[in-house]
């Protein structure tokens, strides 16, 4: 990219302004607004995680809640059942997720496309039914609570998740600009060529899956603090769908994509309260409708509205990876 | 438990497996032969079940008319979907748009029929071989139908001109066009036809099960498992895999206990993916790069 | 050029996002401030007090919408029966839809932001674990009807758990099975064989039953948990057919229970005694199966609308009005919400309506409630232990289905009809 020093400075100033606004945000917001902001930022983190796996590396994960849910369960089980602290809970989530991602990654390294998606669904179903059945460990369908001393105020939660979101964005940018990211993109764009040029497809795919899972795991650990309990719902398809939507609506393959797309989450939270209960199913219909329309008409996401002059839109990149 | 108990379990497993085969047949055809990843699949079967219920119990239509209605509506849905959502063959976007549509269907059903579970309250007659060994008539019919439909679809694809045309179009659209095949129309027709299978499966399931808006999730799951385990583009294989899954399910439930069913079945599925990623019934070389 | 445009884009969307936040911030600002609920002073003194809002976040959509609506109707009915006001101040119910835990939590925050400070559980009580940790910090009065007692982690000022306990529920069912064995089958606990069948989603109900069975020497010859998605009951039924047992205890949800019962009917197989412990067995879905299937099935539940008027004053009026208004017989869930609301009304009666906005006073009044069993329409009494868990909600009811209707058969003082065990066609 050709950039003059001056322009870089301008962007840095803009980012700093945004960051400052985000940092000062809790002072101007009430509890509900903060609550929405927390959820939104969490989905930004999850969105970046999905973006890394699917947007950058082209592995389509429609069961991303698997990694997220394991993060939640790692946290709750460690603090409640094992009686260890928060840090141990986060580490537990990361360790379990690394193992799971390795398994998924190994499958992804052999195959791709649909097969990867299916393997993820199979593992997801296995973990989900185990989370219900291993009642002594997981609390089953009733769930278990986090110890009450770990209750943070909404403001504290906001800063925690803001840190997570910013860190995940920086991580995404870092990976994208590094050699690793170049390999990821090469695998997505043309796996045959990448293989021919001596790139070890399998290992890069495993690495992408692990990175993505770790990011989702951190978001999960945070969500355990937000919910103060676990619940088998964290494995729900609706969470996977929201993650995907955030990225697709925003713009796949761009670091700002999930940030722009997370406006959908804000919209969802606002709409839900306004719908009369009889018509509540329609909020999901609208939600899914937006996804369909975006995917069909603007596969490049909101971000593409602002960059008409750039010839290369991600729409062309989004050819199915095989 | 005696020997007869196990025979009964296995026999019923085979029948249920046939039903699984029928359930996943349309999916196998759509993904395997047409390369259209249709995630609305379970939701469409669920919708067909509700439509059956609606025609028979709420409108009190005769069974024949009800069946015709369900089939026509399904054909129309298939046509519309192909014309809008699945216009481009792009796996990633197909997954997304059909996932979205699945939610739309589910929630519209929820709105019109509420989440109260619906049941036709038909009781299945059973054929008794011995006092302890018996199979249900509807299940048996499902088994036979699934076998006939899947095998004849496979024959249709392999032997008839239209079938070959469909395969040619899927493999290379441009060349097929040069050969004088109207590729768009062929695909439209094939996809819409596969929705008739969905309608039939939905009607059969409605006679056996209670339907609720999220009923389709499980069907989609079983459909995936069978379709991928068999290997894409292999309908006969899908039928055999369906039966295998049915028997395996029944044996896991009967011998180990039903609690082991889901973890073992889906765990095995992942093992199959690791060991034979191209499917149980496919040759290695033509499967992996298929999609 | 492109950079400038991109910056513009980011700025625009930032403005949009801020606008959205402020939009709903303003909406919130017109409502009473989060920290200071409206004090009923000043000009409002001689005028009308604003109605007290009681919030319920329940599952109005999603797979459990039916139960969620039962809760809603039960609460509405309770408010109607009290005339919409207590001591001259109006009361208003505010319902919100919470099909999942995170939606419930978000809606809770929304209602809280709109000035609602008094809450009651919705159906399934799916986010009560979270509220149990938060209620004290938020100074919001919360009456939970959740049955998992372990969500209480210590003393609380604002969080009350008014409903039954899952352990009492399961132990009661197993003790009753032993009792039935003794009275009707002539078998001692040591000789009694039971078959336990449950969906793993309800494993927490099955586990205390197994413990109770073990403690009393009852043999559990079949202990089968199946996943919620199970569609094929043949292996399980074949097992049942080939095992010798006295009482079948199914703990099932709606779709699986229907399938199971239809299947055993098709197979013409009828266990001697079915003592169900679970939600499905007192729903209309169950009674829709027809008398041939349902007759004689016993079901253990919370206090339900079939109990006797003598022990639960007001239950007949509730039952009749409910059916007249909503077109179907109320379920145990509706009675739960109805009873829970009545607990709130008792609490409100003790506090001057001017002080209703002070949740600390309401919480103190709540804590001081002391009702013996049989004084409230849900039969249960109220007496809080040190963790604010209701100690007088342990009584369960066994009902029997006879020709399409449910009659309480156990315990004696709630009985509306004598049990027929085993059922003869």
Sequence of strands across the biggest β-sheet of chain B: 1-2
Number of helices of chain A: 15
Secondary structural class of chain A: mainly alpha
Q: Please provide the count of β strands of chain B.
A: 2
User: Over the alpha carbons, how many angstroms does the gyration radius of chain A reach?
Assistant: 20 Å
Query: What structural class do helix, strand and pairing data of chain B support?
Result: mainly alpha
Average pLDDT across residues of chain A?
A: 84
Could you state the order of secondary-structure elements of chain B as H and E? HHHHEEHHHHHHH
Name the overall outline of chain B.
globular
Oligomeric state of the chains? heterotrimer
Mean pLDDT of chain B: 83
Helical segment count of chain B: 11
Q: Report how far apart the termini of chain A are.
A: 28 Å
Briefly say what this structure is.
Chain B: The chain crosses the membrane at residues 6-29, 36-56, 62-81, 93-113, 133-157, 189-209, 215-232, 239-258, 264-281. Chain B is mainly α and 291 residues long.
Structural summary, described in words:
The complex is a heterotrimer of chains A (322), B (291) and C (425). Chain A has helices at 5-28, 31-56, 65-81, 86-110, 113-133, 135-138, 154-177, 179-189, 191-196, 201-227, 237-250, 257-261, 263-274, 281-297, 314-317. With 322 residues, chain A is mainly alpha-helical. Chain A is globular and about 55 Å long. The two termini of chain A are 28 Å apart. Chain B is built from eleven helices and two strands; from the N terminus they run ααααββααααααα. Residues 286-291 of chain B have low confidence and may be disordered. Chain C is α/β, with parallel strands linked by helices and 425 residues long. Chain C is built from 13 helices and 13 strands. The chains are: A mainly alpha (322), B mainly alpha (291), C alpha/beta (425).
Secondary-structure topology with pairs:
The complex is a heterotrimer of chains A (322), B (291) and C (425).
Chain A: H1 5-28, H2 31-56, H3 65-81, H4 86-110, H5 113-133, H6 135-138, H7 154-177, H8 179-189, H9 191-196, H10 201-227, H11 237-250, H12 257-261, H13 263-274, H14 281-297, H15 314-317
Helix pairs in contact in A: 2-7, 2-10, 2-11, 2-13, 3-4, 3-10, 4-10, 7-8, 7-10, 8-10
Chain B: H1 3-33, H2 41-58, H3 63-84, H4 91-113, E1 126-130, E2 133-136, H5 137-159, H6 161-171, H7 173-178, H8 183-208, H9 215-230, H10 235-256, H11 261-275
Helix pairs in contact in B: 1-5, 1-8, 1-9, 1-10, 2-3, 2-4, 2-8, 2-9, 3-8, 5-6, 5-8, 5-10, 6-8, 9-10
Chain C: H1 2-29, E1 52-58, H2 65-81, E2 85-86, E3 89-97, H3 101-113, E4 118-120, H4 128-138, E5 141-144, E6 159-161, H5 166-184, E7 193-199, H6 203-215, E8 219-226, H7 234-241, E9 247-251, H8 254-266, E10 273-277, H9 284-287, H10 291-294, E11 298-301, H11 315-326, H12 332-349, H13 359-367, E12 397-402, E13 405-410
Parallel strand pairs in C: 1-3, 1-4, 4-5, 5-6, 7-8, 7-9, 9-10, 10-11
Antiparallel strand pairs in C: 2-3, 11-12, 12-13
Helix pairs in contact in C: 2-11, 2-12, 5-6
């Amino acid at each position: 990219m050709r950039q003059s020093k001056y322009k870089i400075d301008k962007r840095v100033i803009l980012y700093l302004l945004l960051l400052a606004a985000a940092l000062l945000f809790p002072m101007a917001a009430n509890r509900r607004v903060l609550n929405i902001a927390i959820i939104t930022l969490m989905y930004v983190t999850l969105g970046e995680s999905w973006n890394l796996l699917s947007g950058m590396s082209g592995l389509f994960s429609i069961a991303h809640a698997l990694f997220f849910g394991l993060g939640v369960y790692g946290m709750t089980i460690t603090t409640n059942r094992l009686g260890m602290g928060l840090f141990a809970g986060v580490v537990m989530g990361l360790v379990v997720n690394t193992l799971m991602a390795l398994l998924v990654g190994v499958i992804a390294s052999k195959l791709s496309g649909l097969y990867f998606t299916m393997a993820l669904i199979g593992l997801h179903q296995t973990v989900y039914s185990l989370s219900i059945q291993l009642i002594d460990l997981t609390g089953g369908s009733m769930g278990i609570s986090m110890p009450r001393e770990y209750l943070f105020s909404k403001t504290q939660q906001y800063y925690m998740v803001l840190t997570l979101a910013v860190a995940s964005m920086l991580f995404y940018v870092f990976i994208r600009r590094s050699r690793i990211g170049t390999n990821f993109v090469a695998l997505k764009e043309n796996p045959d060529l990448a293989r021919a040029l001596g790139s070890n497809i399998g290992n890069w795919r495993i690495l992408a899956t692990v990175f993505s899972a770790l990011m989702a795991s951190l978001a999960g650990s945070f969500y355990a603090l937000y919910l103060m309990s676990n619940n088998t719902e964290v494995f729900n398809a609706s969470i996977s769908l929201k993650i995907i939507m955030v990225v697709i609506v925003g713009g796949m393959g761009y670091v700002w994509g999930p940030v722009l797309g997370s406006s959908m989450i804000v919209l969802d939270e606002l709409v839900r309260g306004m719908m009369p209960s009889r018509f509540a199913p329609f909020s999901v219909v609208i939600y899914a409708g937006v996804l369909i329309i975006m995917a069909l008409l603007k596969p490049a996401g909101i971000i593409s509205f602002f960059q008409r002059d750039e010839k290369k839109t991600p729409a062309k990149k989004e050819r199915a990876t095989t | 438990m005696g020997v007869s108990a196990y025979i009964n379990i296995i026999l019923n497993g085979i029948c249920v497996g046939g039903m699984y085969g029928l359930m996943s047949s349309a999916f196998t055809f759509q993904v395997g032969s047409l390369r259209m990843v249709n995630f609305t699949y379970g939701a469409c079967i669920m919708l067909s079940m509700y439509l059956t219920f609606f025609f028979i119990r709420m409108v009190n239509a005769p069974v024949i008319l009800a069946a015709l209605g369900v089939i026509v509506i399904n054909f129309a849905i298939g046509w519309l979907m192909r014309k809008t959502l699945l216009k481009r063959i792009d796996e990633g976007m197909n997954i997304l748009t059909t996932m979205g549509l699945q939610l739309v269907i589910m929630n519209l059903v929820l709105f019109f029929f509420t989440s109260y579970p619906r049941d036709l309250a038909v009781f299945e007659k059973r054929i008794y071989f011995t006092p302890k060994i018996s199979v249900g008539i509807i299940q048996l019919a499902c088994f036979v139908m699934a076998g006939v439909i899947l095998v004849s679809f496979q024959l249709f694809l392999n032997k008839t001109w239209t079938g070959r045309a469909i395969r040619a179009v899927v493999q290379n659209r441009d060349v097929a066009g040069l050969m004088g095949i109207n590729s768009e129309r062929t695909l439209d027709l094939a996809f819409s036809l596969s929705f008739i299978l969905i309608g039939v499966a939905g009607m059969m399931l409605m006679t056996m099960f209670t339907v609720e808006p999220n009923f389709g999730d499980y069907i989609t799951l079983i459909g995936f498992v069978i379709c991928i385990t068999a290997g894409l583009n292999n309908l006969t294989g899908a039928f055999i895999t369906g039966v295998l899954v049915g028997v395996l399910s029944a044996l896991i439930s009967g011998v180990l206990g039903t609690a082991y069913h889901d973890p073992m079945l889906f765990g095995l599925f992942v093992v199959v993916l690791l060991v034979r990623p191209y499917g149980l019934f496919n040759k290695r070389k033509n499967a992996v790069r298929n999609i | 050029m492109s950079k400038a445009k991109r910056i513009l884009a980011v700025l625009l969307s930032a403005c949009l996002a801020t606008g959205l936040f402020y939009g709903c911030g303003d909406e919130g600002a017109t409502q009473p401030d989060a920290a200071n609920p409206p004090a009923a002073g000043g000009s409002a003194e001689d005028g009308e007090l604003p109605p007290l809002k009681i919030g319920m976040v329940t599952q109005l959509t999603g797979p459990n919408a039916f139960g969620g609506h039962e809760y809603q109707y039960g609460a509405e009915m309770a408010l109607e029966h009290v005339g919409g006001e207590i001591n001259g101040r109006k009361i208003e119910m505010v319902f919100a839809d919470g099909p999942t835990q995170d939606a419930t939590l978000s809606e809770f925050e929304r209602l809280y932001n709109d000035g609602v400070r008094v809450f009651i559980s919705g159906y399934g009580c799916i986010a009560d674990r979270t509220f149990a940790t938060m209620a004290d910090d938020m100074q919001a009065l919360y009456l939970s009807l959740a049955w998992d007692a372990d969500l209480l982690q210590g003393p609380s000022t604002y969080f009350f758990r008014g409903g039954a306990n899952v352990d009492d529920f399961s132990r009661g069912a197993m003790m009753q099975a032993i009792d039935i064995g003794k009275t009707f089958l002539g078998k001692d606990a040591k000789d009694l064989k039971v078959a336990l069948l449950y969906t793993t989603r309800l494993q927490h109900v099955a586990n205390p039953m197994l413990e109770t069975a073990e403690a009393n020497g009852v043999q559990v010859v079949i202990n089968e948990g199946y996943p919620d998605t199970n569609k094929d009951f043949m292996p399980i039924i074949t097992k049942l057919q080939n095992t010798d047992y006295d009482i079948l205890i199914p703990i099932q949800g709606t779709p699986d229970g229907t399938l199971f019962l239809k299947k055993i009917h098709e197979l013409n197989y009828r266990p001697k005694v079915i003592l169900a412990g679970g939600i499905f067995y007192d729903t209309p879905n169950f009674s829709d199966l027809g008398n041939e299937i349902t007759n004689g099935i016993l079901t253990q539940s919370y206090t339900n609308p079939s109990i006797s008027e003598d022990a639960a004053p007001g239950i007949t009026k509730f039952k009749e009005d409910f059916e007249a208004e909503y077109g179907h017989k109320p379920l145990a869930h509706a009675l739960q919400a109805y009873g829970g609301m009545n607990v709130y009304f008792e609490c409100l009666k003790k506090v001057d309506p001017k002080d209703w906005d002070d949740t600390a006073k309401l919480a103190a009044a709540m804590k001081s409630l002391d009702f013996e069993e049989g004084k409230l329409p849900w039969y249960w009494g109220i007496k809080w232990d040190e963790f604010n868990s209701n100690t007088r909600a342990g009584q369960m009811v066994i009902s029997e289905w006879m020709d399409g209707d449910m009659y309480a058969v156990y315990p004696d003082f709630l009985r509306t009809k004598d049990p027929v065990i085993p059922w003869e066609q």
